[in-house]
């Protein structure tokens, strides 16, 4: 039996598979294997084609309380998003929001009509940064602390941001938040207004906490995409939120958009939002 | 020449000490802000710019209005203004300094200010605003100082300042145009998204600035031996008259476009300011005060006899100031940010600390103007003008 090139490649392939098998079985690898099974699509698909860009679809017909809360909570925990309440226990006007619930007519200002089915009109929407293709926030930033990556993600460099908040005035979706106070203090020192006790918020050590004086927002979970994971909110709301490469007709998000009619927030502004809502 | 500022009456020194005390209070409040963060202000996620940026907007106008003296004097050889152009230029120096300080106190990370220069970003209007404001500051410093020094020595100003003077004329227009572009270029902010923003800014500036100059001239006449001259004041008052009329006319144009087109995202802001929106009406009394002051001022200024009466003129100038100050120093921010992009309402009022910091910045600006005016007036007195 002579080893020709084909056979060699085959054998190499088997060897590689065996190697991968070992990778999965070695101690500690199980979590990763579990993740692969847990998230659909397979994380190996989570790469954006050159010239492509990331996008998201949210199915408004399936978005219920449970899904909304799971998605928002996943993001808050994953990214150490601090939350402030005022004296009455309501969200403070200086709160930080990456992804949050809004009424339909707030999310889709001037899109509502009085005769739409109440299931649509009275169902809350999840809103987050749209990772616009023509982002006004990037246009106005005087330091390029907000910039657009090649894969379409509108990213923040919190070490460069001077806190001028021009980007907040420019974003037509209210997607940005400013750290009016030190968020790190919030994790440990914020008093619970009801009990008067310090409220301990768990800190996710994998994700950096921020400092006061900088702006922040949803990053499309760039840090998770880098290791082949779906965004945290999408992973927490399977079958309701979809994510993928907009330039790839076979991506899960495009598959949904092909089948269903979808709308975007304020399309008339020419920002080209990359978050789509299936209705 | 600066030594002239060191010799002054008790009243002069008392005034400086008062200003220094206010500056100290403002600085103390700023230390609190530096430690606590901008959370000590009334600003919020929805109203992310407040009193500081509003003062910047208003004061850019005051600075730009120096051109109302420089232009007639240098381009039209209107000699009457020759005596007081220096007052306009020195007022501009104080005003631009305050503008720059208001930007700095508004920053979340002031220690990173230099990032604007380290990473210059031509697509950002804020970058250009910084450029034009700084250049304007230096233009006025050089021109004002140089012409005054020559006046003292009784020699004509050197030839090289002439081009700078001519440059300062369009430059004055540019600082307020670029400041208007900060707002006018943002999609989704119906109140600001209007091509008439820059002209509105300019006419309100050319009403407010000369009104301040008239009041300052009257003050100067009282506390020094220098008399800016009745004719200069009368000419300025005509400028104020035209510009305050234009100011309200332009607002009327805005209202027509917004309400005749009936577009909710453009109407809601003006409705909020003047009538309240969904029960939120903090701004309503202010905006109507502004409007009434403006209309009354027009009534007082338009009749030549009343305008020539300097007592009435002074009152009219105060009214013009109140009108344009509320319009730009308060309404511009509140109207732009309320309601927010999701049509929610978060109202804004500055906090005590915010106002203290602002008072400190104003005191510093007034201190600069006082010292510069002292120098200028002493020289004018020496020359027996
Ligand atoms: S939604 Fe706002 S913050 Fe996000 S990219 Fe668009 S303009 Fe920027
Ligand atoms: S706040 Fe930061 S990110 Fe926003 S425009 Fe200013 S420097 Fe850029
Ligand atoms: S994509 Fe990531 S950062 Fe953005 S809202 Fe979802 S979880 Fe948060």
What labels would you give this structure?
heterodimer, A: alpha+beta, Alpha-Beta Plaits, two-stranded antiparallel ribbon, 11 helices, 31% helix, B: 385 residues, mainly alpha, Formate dehydrogenase/DMSO reductase fold, 14 helices, 74% helix, binds iron/sulfur cluster
SSE layout and pairing:
The complex is a heterodimer of chains A (279) and B (385).
Chain A: H1 5-25, H2 30-38, E1 54-59, H3 65-78, E2 99-102, H4 104-107, H5 118-121, E3 125-128, H6 136-140, E4 146-148, E5 154-156, H7 166-170, E6 177-178, H8 183-189, E7 215-216, H9 222-225, H10 232-236, E8 241-245, H11 252-259, E9 262-263, E10 275-278
Parallel strand pairs in A: 1-10
Antiparallel strand pairs in A: 1-8, 2-3, 4-5, 6-7, 9-10
Chain B: H1 10-36, H2 51-64, H3 67-76, H4 85-106, H5 115-118, H6 125-153, H7 161-184, H8 197-223, H9 230-261, H10 264-275, H11 284-302, H12 304-308, H13 310-337, H14 352-382
One iron/sulfur cluster is lined by residues 129-132, 135-137, 154, 171, 173, 175-176, 217, 271 of chain A.
Describe this protein's structure.
The complex is a heterodimer of chains A (279) and B (385). Chain A is of the alpha+beta class and 279 residues long. Chain A contains eleven helices and ten strands. Chain A has helices at 5-25, 30-38, 65-78, 104-107, 118-121, 136-140, 166-170, 183-189, 222-225, 232-236, 252-259; strands at residues 54-59, 99-102, 125-128, 146-148, 154-156, 177-178, 215-216, 241-245, 262-263, 275-278. In chain A, the strands form four sheets. Chain A has a four-stranded mixed β-sheet with strand order 8-1-10-9. In chain A, strands 2-3 form a two-stranded antiparallel sheet. Chain A starts with a helix and ends with a strand. The model of chain B has no long low-confidence stretch (mean pLDDT 94). The two termini of chain B are 18 Å apart. In chain B, 74% of the residues lie in helices and 0% in strands. Chain B is globular, with a radius of gyration of 21 Å. Chain B is mostly helical and 385 residues long. Chain B has a single domain (48-353), classed as Up-down Bundle (Formate dehydrogenase/DMSO reductase fold). Chain B is built from 14 helices and no strands. The chains are: A alpha+beta (279), B mainly alpha (385). Chains A and B meet through helix 4, helix 6, helix 7 and strand 6 of A and helix 5 and helix 6 of B. The structure holds iron/sulfur cluster (3 copies). One iron/sulfur cluster (SF4) binds next to helix 7 of chain A. One iron/sulfur cluster binds at residues 74-75, 78-79, 98-99, 128, 218-221, 231-233 of chain A.
């Amino acid at each position: 039996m002579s080893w020709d090139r084909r056979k060699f490649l085959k054998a190499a392939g088997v060897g590689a598979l065996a190697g991968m098998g070992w990778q999965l079985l070695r101690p500690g690898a199980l979590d990763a294997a579990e993740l692969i099974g847990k998230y659909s699509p397979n994380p190996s698909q989570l790469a954006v084609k050159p010239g492509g860009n990331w996008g998201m679809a949210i199915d408004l017909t399936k978005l219920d309380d449970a899904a909304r809360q799971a998605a928002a909570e996943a993001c808050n925990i994953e990214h150490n998003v601090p939350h402030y309440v005022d004296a009455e226990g309501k969200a403070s006007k200086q709160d930080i929001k990456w992804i949050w619930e809004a009424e339909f007519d707030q999310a889709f200002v001037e899109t509502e009509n009085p005769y739409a089915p109440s299931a649509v009109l009275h169902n809350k929407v999840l809103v987050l940064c749209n990772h616009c293709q023509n982002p006004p926030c990037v246009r106005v930033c005087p330091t390029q602390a907000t910039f657009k990556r090649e894969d379409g993600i509108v990213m923040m460099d919190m070490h460069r941001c001077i806190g001028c908040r021009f980007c907040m005035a420019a974003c037509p979706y209210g997607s940005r938040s400013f750290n009016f106070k030190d968020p790190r203090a919030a994790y440990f020192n914020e008093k619970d207004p009801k009990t008067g006790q310090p409220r301990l918020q768990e800190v996710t050590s994998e994700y950096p906490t921020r400092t006061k004086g900088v702006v922040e927002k949803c990053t499309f979970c760039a840090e998770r995409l880098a290791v082949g994971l779906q965004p945290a909110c999408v992973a927490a709301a399977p079958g309701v939120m979809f994510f993928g490469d907009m330039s790839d007709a076979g991506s899960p998000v495009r598959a949904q958009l092909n089948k269903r009619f979808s709308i975007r927030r304020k399309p008339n502004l020419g920002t080209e939002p990359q978050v789509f809502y299936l209705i | 020449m600066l030594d002239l500022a060191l010799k002054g009456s008790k009243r002069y020194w008392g005034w400086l000490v008062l200003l220094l005390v206010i500056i100290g209070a403002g600085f103390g409040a700023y230390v609190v802000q530096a430690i606590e963060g901008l959370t000590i202000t009334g600003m919020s996620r929805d109203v992310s710019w407040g009193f500081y940026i509003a003062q910047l907007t208003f004061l850019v106008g005051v600075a730009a209005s120096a051109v109302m003296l420089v232009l007639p004097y240098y381009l039209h050889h209107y000699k009457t203004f020759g005596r007081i152009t220096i007052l306009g230029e020195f007022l501009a120096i104080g005003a631009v300094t305050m503008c720059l300080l208001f930007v700095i106190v508004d920053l979340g990370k002031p220690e990173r200010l230099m990032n604007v220069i380290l990473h210059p970003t031509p697509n950002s209007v804020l970058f250009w605003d910084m450029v034009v404001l700084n250049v304007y500051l230096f233009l006025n410093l050089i021109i004002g100082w140089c012409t005054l020094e020559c006046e003292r020595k009784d020699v004509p100003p050197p030839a090289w300042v002439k081009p700078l003077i001519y440059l300062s004329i369009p430059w004055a227009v540019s600082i307020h145009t670029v400041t208007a572009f900060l707002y006018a270029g943002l999609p989704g902010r119906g109140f600001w998204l209007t091509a008439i923003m820059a002209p509105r800014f300019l006419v309100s500036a050319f009403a407010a600035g000369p009104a301040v100059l008239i009041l300052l001239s009257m003050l100067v006449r009282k506390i020094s031996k220098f008399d800016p001259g009745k004719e200069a004041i009368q000419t300025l008052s005509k400028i104020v008259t035209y510009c305050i009329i234009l100011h309200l006319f332009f607002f009327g144009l805005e209202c027509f476009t917004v309400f005749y087109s009936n577009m909710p995202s453009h109407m809601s802001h003006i409705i909020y300011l003047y009538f309240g929106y969904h029960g939120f009406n903090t701004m309503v009394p202010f905006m109507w005060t502004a409007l009434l002051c403006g209309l009354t001022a027009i009534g007082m200024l338009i009749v030549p006899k009343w305008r020539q009466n300097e007592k009435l003129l002074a009152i009219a100038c105060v009214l013009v100031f109140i009108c344009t100050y509320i319009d730009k120093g308060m309404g511009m921010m509140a109207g732009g940010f309320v309601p927010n992009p999701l049509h929610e309402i978060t109202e804004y009022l500055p906090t005590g600390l915010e106002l203290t910091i602002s008072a400190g910045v104003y005191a510093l600006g007034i201190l600069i103007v006082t010292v510069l005016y002292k120098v200028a007036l002493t020289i004018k007195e020496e020359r027996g003008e």
